[in-house]
Amino acid sequence: MTAYPFDAPASQDLLDRALAVTPGGVNSPVRAFRAVGGTPRFMVSGEGPYLKDADGREYVDLVCSWGPMILGHGHPAVVDAVREAVSRGFSFGTPSENEVALAEEIVARVDPVEQVRLVSSGTEATMSAIRLARGFTGRSLVVKFAGCYHGHVDSLLAQAGSGVATFALPDSAGVPKEMAAETIVLPYNDLGAVEAAFAERGAEIAAVITEASPGNMGVVPPAPGFTEGLRRVTAAYGALLISDEVMTGFRCSEAGWFGLEGPYTAGAPDLVTFGKVMGGGFPAAAFGGRADVMALLAPLGPVYQAGTLSGNPVATAAGVTTLRHCTPDLYTRLGEVADAITATVDQELSRAGVPHVVQRAGSMFSVFFRDQPVTSYHEAKAQHVPAFSAFFHSMLSQGVYLPPSAFESWFVSGAHDDAAVDRVLAALPAAASAAAGAFATIDV
Ligand SMILES: *Cc1c(COP(=O)(O)O)cnc(C)c1O
Fold first, then answer.
1. What's the rounded Cα separation, in Å, for the pair 147 and 158?
2. Cα–Cα distance between 339 and 347 in angstroms, integer?
3. Is there a catalytic annotation at residue 377?
4. What are phi and psi of 62, to 5 degrees?
5. What is the mean pLDDT of each run of 10 residues along the chain (444 residues)?
6. Is 126 in the pocket of ligand 1 (CB under 6 A)?
7. Catalytic residue at 244?
8. pTM beyond 0.90, yes or no
9. Residue 122 near ligand 1, beta carbon < 6 Å
Protein backbone atom coordinates (compact mmCIF):
# COMPACT_ATOMS: atom_id res chain seq x y z
CA MET A 1 0.00 0.00 0.00
CA THR A 2 1.24 3.47 -0.82
CA ALA A 3 2.37 5.61 2.08
CA TYR A 4 0.45 8.85 2.27
CA PRO A 5 2.26 12.04 3.23
CA PHE A 6 0.29 12.50 6.43
CA ASP A 7 -2.51 10.72 8.12
CA ALA A 8 -5.76 12.16 9.34
CA PRO A 9 -6.58 10.64 12.72
CA ALA A 10 -9.83 12.50 13.38
CA SER A 11 -11.15 11.72 9.88
CA GLN A 12 -10.06 8.12 10.33
CA ASP A 13 -12.02 7.86 13.61
CA LEU A 14 -15.11 9.23 11.89
CA LEU A 15 -14.59 6.86 8.98
CA ASP A 16 -14.38 3.90 11.38
CA ARG A 17 -17.69 4.94 12.93
CA ALA A 18 -19.20 5.46 9.48
CA LEU A 19 -18.02 2.08 8.20
CA ALA A 20 -19.98 0.37 10.98
CA VAL A 21 -23.28 1.92 9.90
CA THR A 22 -22.96 2.94 6.23
CA PRO A 23 -21.70 0.88 3.26
CA GLY A 24 -18.16 2.03 2.53
CA GLY A 25 -18.62 4.76 5.13
CA VAL A 26 -20.01 7.23 2.61
CA ASN A 27 -23.30 8.33 1.13
CA SER A 28 -21.94 8.80 -2.41
CA PRO A 29 -19.21 6.44 -3.68
CA VAL A 30 -16.51 8.78 -5.02
CA ARG A 31 -16.24 10.44 -1.59
CA ALA A 32 -14.66 7.25 -0.20
CA PHE A 33 -11.23 7.93 -1.82
CA ARG A 34 -11.17 4.31 -3.04
CA ALA A 35 -9.81 5.43 -6.41
CA VAL A 36 -6.91 7.39 -4.94
CA GLY A 37 -6.36 5.55 -1.65
CA GLY A 38 -5.98 7.06 1.79
CA THR A 39 -8.48 8.37 4.31
CA PRO A 40 -11.36 10.47 3.03
CA ARG A 41 -11.37 13.82 4.79
CA PHE A 42 -14.43 14.53 6.89
CA MET A 43 -15.07 18.22 6.53
CA VAL A 44 -16.42 20.30 9.37
CA SER A 45 -16.77 23.74 7.82
CA GLY A 46 -16.41 25.77 4.67
CA GLU A 47 -15.72 29.45 4.26
CA GLY A 48 -15.26 31.18 0.92
CA PRO A 49 -12.75 29.06 -1.08
CA TYR A 50 -11.66 26.98 1.92
CA LEU A 51 -12.74 23.78 3.64
CA LYS A 52 -11.63 22.71 7.09
CA ASP A 53 -11.42 19.03 8.05
CA ALA A 54 -11.93 17.21 11.34
CA ASP A 55 -8.18 17.36 12.02
CA GLY A 56 -8.26 21.14 11.74
CA ARG A 57 -6.45 21.29 8.39
CA GLU A 58 -7.51 23.86 5.83
CA TYR A 59 -7.78 23.18 2.10
CA VAL A 60 -8.39 25.32 -0.96
CA ASP A 61 -11.52 23.64 -2.28
CA LEU A 62 -11.47 22.74 -5.98
CA VAL A 63 -14.52 20.48 -5.73
CA CYS A 64 -17.05 23.04 -4.52
CA SER A 65 -19.49 20.26 -3.58
CA TRP A 66 -19.11 18.98 -7.18
CA GLY A 67 -20.24 22.31 -8.58
CA PRO A 68 -23.02 23.89 -6.52
CA MET A 69 -20.84 26.23 -4.43
CA ILE A 70 -20.21 28.60 -7.32
CA LEU A 71 -20.22 31.60 -4.97
CA GLY A 72 -17.95 29.86 -2.45
CA HIS A 73 -18.91 28.52 0.97
CA GLY A 74 -21.18 30.54 3.22
CA HIS A 75 -21.82 33.41 0.83
CA PRO A 76 -23.38 36.08 3.07
CA ALA A 77 -26.38 36.77 0.81
CA VAL A 78 -27.24 33.08 0.63
CA VAL A 79 -26.81 32.68 4.38
CA ASP A 80 -29.22 35.60 4.92
CA ALA A 81 -31.77 34.21 2.47
CA VAL A 82 -31.65 30.78 4.08
CA ARG A 83 -31.95 32.23 7.60
CA GLU A 84 -34.91 34.31 6.52
CA ALA A 85 -36.60 31.32 4.88
CA VAL A 86 -35.96 29.01 7.83
CA SER A 87 -37.39 31.57 10.22
CA ARG A 88 -40.70 31.24 8.39
CA GLY A 89 -40.82 27.43 8.41
CA PHE A 90 -39.05 24.53 6.75
CA SER A 91 -41.56 22.88 4.45
CA PHE A 92 -45.24 23.39 3.84
CA GLY A 93 -46.26 20.77 1.30
CA THR A 94 -48.04 23.60 -0.54
CA PRO A 95 -46.91 25.96 -3.27
CA SER A 96 -44.81 28.89 -2.01
CA GLU A 97 -43.29 31.99 -3.57
CA ASN A 98 -39.59 31.03 -3.65
CA GLU A 99 -40.25 28.16 -6.02
CA VAL A 100 -41.97 30.52 -8.46
CA ALA A 101 -39.05 32.93 -8.21
CA LEU A 102 -36.53 30.14 -8.87
CA ALA A 103 -38.52 28.87 -11.86
CA GLU A 104 -38.75 32.42 -13.24
CA GLU A 105 -35.00 32.87 -12.88
CA ILE A 106 -34.31 29.65 -14.82
CA VAL A 107 -36.83 30.39 -17.56
CA ALA A 108 -35.43 33.92 -17.97
CA ARG A 109 -31.89 32.60 -18.40
CA VAL A 110 -32.25 29.57 -20.64
CA ASP A 111 -34.08 30.34 -23.87
CA PRO A 112 -35.39 26.88 -24.79
CA VAL A 113 -36.91 26.46 -21.34
CA GLU A 114 -40.47 27.75 -21.31
CA GLN A 115 -41.64 25.84 -18.23
CA VAL A 116 -39.85 24.00 -15.44
CA ARG A 117 -40.79 21.49 -12.77
CA LEU A 118 -38.66 21.51 -9.61
CA VAL A 119 -37.37 18.30 -8.03
CA SER A 120 -34.77 17.57 -5.34
CA SER A 121 -31.87 15.94 -7.21
CA GLY A 122 -30.33 15.75 -10.66
CA THR A 123 -31.18 12.06 -10.74
CA GLU A 124 -34.86 12.86 -10.32
CA ALA A 125 -34.60 15.51 -13.03
CA THR A 126 -33.18 13.15 -15.67
CA MET A 127 -35.44 10.27 -14.62
CA SER A 128 -38.49 12.50 -14.96
CA ALA A 129 -37.32 13.99 -18.26
CA ILE A 130 -36.93 10.47 -19.69
CA ARG A 131 -40.41 9.49 -18.50
CA LEU A 132 -41.83 12.64 -20.03
CA ALA A 133 -40.07 12.04 -23.34
CA ARG A 134 -41.44 8.50 -23.43
CA GLY A 135 -44.92 9.76 -22.58
CA PHE A 136 -44.75 12.44 -25.25
CA THR A 137 -43.46 10.22 -28.05
CA GLY A 138 -45.15 6.95 -27.07
CA ARG A 139 -41.76 5.25 -27.66
CA SER A 140 -39.46 3.55 -25.19
CA LEU A 141 -35.82 3.48 -26.39
CA VAL A 142 -33.35 6.02 -25.08
CA VAL A 143 -29.95 6.82 -26.57
CA LYS A 144 -27.17 7.81 -24.18
CA PHE A 145 -23.42 8.19 -24.58
CA ALA A 146 -20.68 6.19 -22.92
CA GLY A 147 -19.00 8.22 -20.18
CA CYS A 148 -21.99 10.52 -19.67
CA TYR A 149 -23.48 10.41 -16.19
CA HIS A 150 -27.10 11.34 -15.65
CA GLY A 151 -27.52 10.30 -12.04
CA HIS A 152 -28.26 6.78 -10.86
CA VAL A 153 -31.38 6.25 -12.96
CA ASP A 154 -31.70 2.51 -13.81
CA SER A 155 -31.87 2.94 -17.56
CA LEU A 156 -29.08 5.55 -17.61
CA LEU A 157 -26.39 3.68 -15.65
CA ALA A 158 -25.06 1.81 -18.69
CA GLN A 159 -21.43 2.86 -19.24
CA ALA A 160 -21.99 5.88 -17.07
CA GLY A 161 -19.34 8.36 -15.96
CA SER A 162 -18.68 9.72 -12.44
CA GLY A 163 -18.40 6.96 -9.80
CA VAL A 164 -19.17 4.27 -12.37
CA ALA A 165 -16.10 5.42 -14.31
CA THR A 166 -14.02 5.92 -11.18
CA PHE A 167 -14.53 2.30 -10.16
CA ALA A 168 -14.38 0.97 -13.74
CA LEU A 169 -17.75 -0.74 -13.30
CA PRO A 170 -19.12 -2.03 -16.60
CA ASP A 171 -22.66 -1.29 -15.43
CA SER A 172 -24.56 -1.48 -12.19
CA ALA A 173 -25.86 -4.72 -10.72
CA GLY A 174 -29.55 -4.54 -9.92
CA VAL A 175 -30.60 -3.06 -13.25
CA PRO A 176 -32.86 -5.60 -15.00
CA LYS A 177 -31.72 -6.74 -18.45
CA GLU A 178 -35.07 -5.63 -19.83
CA MET A 179 -34.41 -2.13 -18.53
CA ALA A 180 -30.89 -2.00 -19.94
CA ALA A 181 -32.27 -3.21 -23.28
CA GLU A 182 -34.27 0.02 -23.47
CA THR A 183 -31.02 1.98 -23.60
CA ILE A 184 -28.73 2.29 -26.62
CA VAL A 185 -25.23 3.34 -25.56
CA LEU A 186 -23.13 5.05 -28.22
CA PRO A 187 -19.62 6.54 -28.25
CA TYR A 188 -19.57 10.24 -27.45
CA ASN A 189 -18.79 12.66 -30.27
CA ASP A 190 -19.60 10.00 -32.89
CA LEU A 191 -22.42 11.40 -35.00
CA GLY A 192 -22.09 8.56 -37.50
CA ALA A 193 -23.00 6.10 -34.73
CA VAL A 194 -26.05 8.19 -33.88
CA GLU A 195 -27.15 8.31 -37.50
CA ALA A 196 -26.71 4.55 -37.81
CA ALA A 197 -28.73 3.86 -34.65
CA PHE A 198 -31.56 6.05 -35.91
CA ALA A 199 -31.44 4.50 -39.37
CA GLU A 200 -31.99 1.13 -37.71
CA ARG A 201 -34.44 1.89 -34.89
CA GLY A 202 -35.39 5.56 -35.27
CA ALA A 203 -39.13 4.95 -35.02
CA GLU A 204 -38.68 3.38 -31.55
CA ILE A 205 -36.38 6.03 -30.05
CA ALA A 206 -38.05 8.41 -27.58
CA ALA A 207 -35.04 10.57 -26.84
CA VAL A 208 -31.33 11.18 -26.98
CA ILE A 209 -29.94 12.33 -23.63
CA THR A 210 -26.51 13.89 -23.50
CA GLU A 211 -24.50 15.91 -21.02
CA ALA A 212 -24.51 19.38 -22.58
CA SER A 213 -20.73 19.24 -22.26
CA PRO A 214 -19.63 16.09 -20.48
CA GLY A 215 -17.90 16.58 -17.13
CA ASN A 216 -18.31 13.15 -15.56
CA MET A 217 -15.53 11.36 -17.47
CA GLY A 218 -13.30 14.37 -16.94
CA VAL A 219 -14.08 17.38 -19.13
CA VAL A 220 -14.78 16.30 -22.74
CA PRO A 221 -16.54 19.07 -24.66
CA PRO A 222 -18.65 18.27 -27.72
CA ALA A 223 -16.77 18.43 -31.02
CA PRO A 224 -17.89 21.32 -33.23
CA GLY A 225 -21.22 20.38 -34.83
CA PHE A 226 -21.89 17.35 -32.61
CA THR A 227 -24.72 18.84 -30.52
CA GLU A 228 -26.14 20.49 -33.62
CA GLY A 229 -26.03 17.11 -35.35
CA LEU A 230 -27.91 15.47 -32.46
CA ARG A 231 -30.58 18.13 -32.82
CA ARG A 232 -30.87 17.53 -36.55
CA VAL A 233 -31.10 13.74 -36.29
CA THR A 234 -33.57 13.66 -33.39
CA ALA A 235 -35.83 16.20 -35.09
CA ALA A 236 -35.77 14.21 -38.34
CA TYR A 237 -37.06 11.12 -36.51
CA GLY A 238 -39.47 12.81 -34.10
CA ALA A 239 -37.38 11.97 -31.03
CA LEU A 240 -36.69 14.48 -28.28
CA LEU A 241 -33.27 15.89 -27.45
CA ILE A 242 -32.59 16.12 -23.72
CA SER A 243 -29.65 18.27 -22.76
CA ASP A 244 -28.43 17.37 -19.27
CA GLU A 245 -27.14 20.61 -17.78
CA VAL A 246 -27.11 19.40 -14.18
CA MET A 247 -23.37 20.09 -14.04
CA THR A 248 -22.91 22.78 -16.71
CA GLY A 249 -26.11 24.72 -16.00
CA PHE A 250 -25.35 28.22 -14.65
CA ARG A 251 -21.73 27.06 -14.31
CA CYS A 252 -20.38 27.46 -17.86
CA SER A 253 -22.23 30.76 -18.33
CA GLU A 254 -25.35 32.56 -17.06
CA ALA A 255 -27.32 30.27 -19.37
CA GLY A 256 -25.11 27.23 -18.87
CA TRP A 257 -23.50 25.40 -21.77
CA PHE A 258 -26.40 26.45 -23.97
CA GLY A 259 -25.29 30.05 -23.37
CA LEU A 260 -21.86 29.21 -24.80
CA GLU A 261 -22.70 26.84 -27.64
CA GLY A 262 -26.35 27.39 -28.50
CA PRO A 263 -28.67 28.55 -29.92
CA TYR A 264 -28.33 26.03 -32.72
CA THR A 265 -29.59 26.75 -36.21
CA ALA A 266 -31.13 23.26 -36.17
CA GLY A 267 -33.14 24.29 -33.08
CA ALA A 268 -32.90 24.16 -29.31
CA PRO A 269 -33.03 21.02 -27.14
CA ASP A 270 -36.59 19.97 -26.28
CA LEU A 271 -35.87 19.32 -22.61
CA VAL A 272 -33.09 20.49 -20.30
CA THR A 273 -32.20 19.17 -16.85
CA PHE A 274 -30.65 21.22 -14.05
CA GLY A 275 -29.26 20.67 -10.56
CA LYS A 276 -26.07 21.49 -8.66
CA VAL A 277 -25.61 25.32 -9.02
CA MET A 278 -29.36 26.04 -9.08
CA GLY A 279 -29.72 24.63 -5.55
CA GLY A 280 -26.88 26.70 -4.14
CA GLY A 281 -25.76 23.71 -2.03
CA PHE A 282 -29.28 22.60 -1.07
CA PRO A 283 -31.33 19.81 -2.64
CA ALA A 284 -33.01 21.53 -5.57
CA ALA A 285 -32.98 20.46 -9.21
CA ALA A 286 -35.29 20.86 -12.19
CA PHE A 287 -36.25 19.74 -15.63
CA GLY A 288 -37.91 21.94 -18.20
CA GLY A 289 -38.30 22.81 -21.83
CA ARG A 290 -40.98 23.14 -24.46
CA ALA A 291 -44.33 24.15 -22.98
CA ASP A 292 -46.23 21.65 -25.15
CA VAL A 293 -44.09 18.80 -23.82
CA MET A 294 -44.19 19.99 -20.20
CA ALA A 295 -47.99 20.21 -20.46
CA LEU A 296 -48.10 16.42 -20.40
CA LEU A 297 -47.06 16.40 -16.74
CA ALA A 298 -49.59 15.80 -13.98
CA PRO A 299 -51.80 17.56 -12.97
CA LEU A 300 -52.26 18.84 -16.57
CA GLY A 301 -51.46 15.61 -18.36
CA PRO A 302 -51.00 11.86 -17.97
CA VAL A 303 -47.27 11.68 -17.10
CA TYR A 304 -47.03 11.35 -13.32
CA GLN A 305 -44.29 13.09 -11.36
CA ALA A 306 -44.31 14.40 -7.77
CA GLY A 307 -42.21 15.08 -4.65
CA THR A 308 -42.88 15.69 -0.95
CA LEU A 309 -39.99 18.15 -0.71
CA SER A 310 -40.02 19.42 -4.33
CA GLY A 311 -39.66 23.20 -4.38
CA ASN A 312 -38.72 23.22 -0.70
CA PRO A 313 -38.87 26.86 0.52
CA VAL A 314 -35.41 26.82 2.12
CA ALA A 315 -33.69 25.10 -0.83
CA THR A 316 -35.35 27.41 -3.33
CA ALA A 317 -34.38 30.48 -1.29
CA ALA A 318 -30.74 29.35 -1.50
CA GLY A 319 -31.10 28.55 -5.18
CA VAL A 320 -32.70 31.77 -6.33
CA THR A 321 -30.28 33.88 -4.29
CA THR A 322 -27.33 31.96 -5.72
CA LEU A 323 -28.57 32.42 -9.29
CA ARG A 324 -29.16 36.14 -8.74
CA HIS A 325 -25.48 36.43 -7.83
CA CYS A 326 -24.44 34.55 -10.98
CA THR A 327 -23.67 37.77 -12.87
CA PRO A 328 -21.41 38.43 -15.86
CA ASP A 329 -18.71 39.59 -13.40
CA LEU A 330 -18.84 36.23 -11.65
CA TYR A 331 -18.21 34.32 -14.89
CA THR A 332 -15.34 36.67 -15.74
CA ARG A 333 -13.74 35.86 -12.39
CA LEU A 334 -14.33 32.10 -12.74
CA GLY A 335 -12.63 32.27 -16.13
CA GLU A 336 -9.62 34.12 -14.69
CA VAL A 337 -9.23 31.58 -11.90
CA ALA A 338 -9.50 28.68 -14.35
CA ASP A 339 -6.98 30.38 -16.68
CA ALA A 340 -4.45 30.81 -13.88
CA ILE A 341 -4.74 27.27 -12.58
CA THR A 342 -4.82 25.50 -15.94
CA ALA A 343 -1.85 27.49 -17.24
CA THR A 344 0.30 26.55 -14.26
CA VAL A 345 -0.87 22.92 -14.25
CA ASP A 346 0.18 22.73 -17.89
CA GLN A 347 3.49 24.48 -17.27
CA GLU A 348 4.48 22.38 -14.26
CA LEU A 349 3.48 19.03 -15.78
CA SER A 350 5.43 19.96 -18.91
CA ARG A 351 8.45 20.94 -16.82
CA ALA A 352 8.26 17.58 -15.01
CA GLY A 353 7.96 15.73 -18.33
CA VAL A 354 4.51 14.31 -17.51
CA PRO A 355 2.26 13.48 -20.48
CA HIS A 356 -0.99 15.40 -19.99
CA VAL A 357 -3.80 17.31 -21.61
CA VAL A 358 -5.89 19.95 -19.87
CA GLN A 359 -9.45 20.20 -21.21
CA ARG A 360 -11.97 22.93 -20.51
CA ALA A 361 -15.63 23.86 -20.79
CA GLY A 362 -16.00 27.44 -19.57
CA SER A 363 -14.51 27.43 -16.08
CA MET A 364 -14.83 23.64 -15.72
CA PHE A 365 -11.61 21.79 -16.45
CA SER A 366 -9.76 18.58 -15.82
CA VAL A 367 -6.38 17.03 -16.51
CA PHE A 368 -5.93 13.75 -18.35
CA PHE A 369 -2.61 12.01 -17.79
CA ARG A 370 -2.01 11.06 -21.43
CA ASP A 371 -0.57 13.01 -24.34
CA GLN A 372 -3.53 12.99 -26.76
CA PRO A 373 -6.76 15.00 -26.44
CA VAL A 374 -9.76 13.06 -25.14
CA THR A 375 -12.96 13.02 -27.19
CA SER A 376 -14.67 9.90 -25.82
CA TYR A 377 -14.96 7.64 -22.77
CA HIS A 378 -12.74 5.06 -24.45
CA GLU A 379 -9.97 7.65 -24.66
CA ALA A 380 -10.64 9.03 -21.16
CA LYS A 381 -10.00 5.59 -19.73
CA ALA A 382 -6.66 5.34 -21.55
CA GLN A 383 -4.78 7.56 -19.10
CA HIS A 384 -2.25 6.95 -16.36
CA VAL A 385 -4.54 6.83 -13.31
CA PRO A 386 -1.72 6.21 -10.76
CA ALA A 387 -0.13 9.49 -11.89
CA PHE A 388 -3.38 11.23 -11.00
CA SER A 389 -3.43 9.57 -7.57
CA ALA A 390 0.12 10.69 -6.84
CA PHE A 391 -0.72 14.20 -8.03
CA PHE A 392 -3.89 14.22 -5.94
CA HIS A 393 -2.15 13.18 -2.71
CA SER A 394 0.62 15.69 -3.18
CA MET A 395 -1.96 18.47 -3.60
CA LEU A 396 -3.95 17.20 -0.60
CA SER A 397 -0.88 17.17 1.63
CA GLN A 398 -0.21 20.77 0.57
CA GLY A 399 -3.74 21.88 1.44
CA VAL A 400 -5.53 21.68 -1.92
CA TYR A 401 -8.64 19.54 -2.19
CA LEU A 402 -9.05 18.10 -5.70
CA PRO A 403 -11.75 15.67 -6.81
CA PRO A 404 -10.59 12.24 -5.61
CA SER A 405 -10.86 10.71 -9.08
CA ALA A 406 -9.17 11.13 -12.45
CA PHE A 407 -12.61 11.16 -14.08
CA GLU A 408 -14.11 14.28 -12.57
CA SER A 409 -14.11 17.97 -13.35
CA TRP A 410 -12.43 20.49 -11.04
CA PHE A 411 -14.60 23.40 -9.91
CA VAL A 412 -13.74 26.94 -8.91
CA SER A 413 -15.85 29.64 -7.27
CA GLY A 414 -16.23 33.40 -7.17
CA ALA A 415 -14.68 33.27 -3.68
CA HIS A 416 -11.38 31.95 -5.03
CA ASP A 417 -9.41 35.15 -4.52
CA ASP A 418 -5.77 35.65 -5.47
CA ALA A 419 -4.55 34.32 -2.13
CA ALA A 420 -6.41 31.02 -2.62
CA VAL A 421 -5.28 30.72 -6.24
CA ASP A 422 -1.67 31.39 -5.22
CA ARG A 423 -1.85 28.53 -2.73
CA VAL A 424 -2.97 26.21 -5.53
CA LEU A 425 -0.22 27.43 -7.86
CA ALA A 426 2.45 27.03 -5.18
CA ALA A 427 1.45 23.38 -4.66
CA LEU A 428 1.67 22.41 -8.33
CA PRO A 429 5.46 21.95 -8.83
CA ALA A 430 5.70 19.24 -6.13
CA ALA A 431 2.49 17.58 -7.36
CA ALA A 432 3.84 17.49 -10.91
CA SER A 433 7.03 15.85 -9.63
CA ALA A 434 4.95 13.29 -7.74
CA ALA A 435 3.02 12.50 -10.94
CA ALA A 436 6.32 12.13 -12.81
CA GLY A 437 7.47 9.65 -10.16
CA ALA A 438 4.34 7.55 -10.62
CA PHE A 439 4.80 7.56 -14.39
CA ALA A 440 8.37 6.40 -13.99
CA THR A 441 7.60 3.56 -11.58
CA ILE A 442 4.08 2.26 -12.23
CA ASP A 443 3.09 0.58 -15.50
CA VAL A 444 -0.56 0.72 -16.46
C1 LIG B 1 -24.48 15.34 -10.83
C2 LIG B 1 -25.13 15.00 -12.10
C3 LIG B 1 -26.37 14.33 -12.15
C4 LIG B 1 -27.03 13.77 -10.92
O5 LIG B 1 -27.40 14.75 -9.99
P6 LIG B 1 -27.63 14.31 -8.47
O7 LIG B 1 -28.13 15.56 -7.83
O8 LIG B 1 -26.31 13.83 -7.96
O9 LIG B 1 -28.65 13.22 -8.48
C10 LIG B 1 -26.99 14.17 -13.37
N11 LIG B 1 -26.41 14.62 -14.50
C12 LIG B 1 -25.22 15.25 -14.50
C13 LIG B 1 -24.66 15.75 -15.78
C14 LIG B 1 -24.54 15.44 -13.31
O15 LIG B 1 -23.34 16.03 -13.32
1. 9
2. 12
3. no
4. -110, 25
5. 68 97 95 94 98 98 98 98 98 97 98 98 98 98 96 86 68 82 94 97 98 98 97 98 98 96 92 98 98 98 97 98 98 98 98 98 98 97 96 97 97 98 98 97 88
6. yes
7. yes
8. yes
9. yes
